[in-house]
Amino acid sequence: MDDELARLQEALVQAERRASEAETRAFDKQRRREEEQRRREEAEERAVYKAQIVPLKKKLNKCHDPDRWNLVELQKVRREQALSSTKKLDGSENDSAALKDDGAVFGNEAKRRKVSGNKRLEDPFGGPL
Fold first, then answer.
1. Do residues 97 and 88 make contact, with C-beta atoms less than 8 angstroms apart?
2. Radius of gyration, alpha carbons of the chain
């Protein structure tokens, strides 16, 4: 009777050990799935950041250029220059008229100013104009 009881207890311990190992394997498998899902989501976020945010940051940095703050006036002058260049090509205007760059339009063609040397601004849209 004692041998049979010892055998049953040993079988019970082995069954519990196998169940525990199965639970551990299932837990590890679930953890690996979750880790893989997290990696996929991070890769997707990086792709979205690279595809959408980086070009917007580049545009924003161009807008920080003080020579281009008045975009309406800049566009107006460019149109006038385009008209004058077509007239020049037709020969109706003298050769001294040439297209000006943005600095010449706004009166500071000799020197361009940097807004900030720091790439990461605290305020992403710059200070007040």
1. yes
2. 35
Most distant pair of Cα atoms in the chain: their distance: 121
Q: Which residues of 33-61 are buried (b: 16+ CB within 10 A; e: fewer)?
A: eeeeeeeeeeeeeeeeeeeeeeeeeeeee
Q: How far apart are CA 102 and CA 69, in angstroms?
A: 11
Q: For residue 70, which of 14, 16, 118, 129 has the smallest C-alpha distance?
A: 129
Asked if residue 118 lies in contact with residue 109, where contact means CB atoms within 8 angstroms, the answer is no
Residue 98 Cα to chain centre, angstroms: 39
Q: What is the pLDDT of residue 118?
A: 54
Please tell me the pTM assigned to this model.
Answer: 0.34
How far is it, in rounded angstroms, from Cα 63 to Cα 124? Answer: 11
